[in-house]
Design brief:
2 domains, 140 residues, 1 helix
Amino acid sequence: MKKIKNLGAAIVILSLPLIALPSIISSNTVLAQTTAKNTKTHTYTGTGSIKTFKKTAYHTKDTDGNLYKALFMADSPNVKLTKKTTLNKYQTTWYATKKMTVKVGPKQTRTYYYVTSSDKKISGWTWQGYLYKGIFKAAD
């Protein structure tokens, strides 16, 4: 009789993770779905390869420029840009080392630069229209 009680208790204890697991999985799925909705993603067609050039200093002005991470497709010329952060959060000099040109319409193209902050803590792709040549100088 004692073995049956112990067996019953063991079954109840071992089945608890199976009961709680579906609720944990569903809450993580909902979290992942809401996070995915909040990120800005653009998919463009590349017009050529990525060009590397000598490190050039740029800065931003009071704009809402975005910094993107890029995902390049292996078998197609598509590039997927996902927003990481905005440039106006960082009052720093950005150093560009690469550029790529993408199609945004039938006759329109955009050039994106791969930039790294002067402290090398953040990097990503940004549209050339948000950047101005020269180092960042703080207003006195």
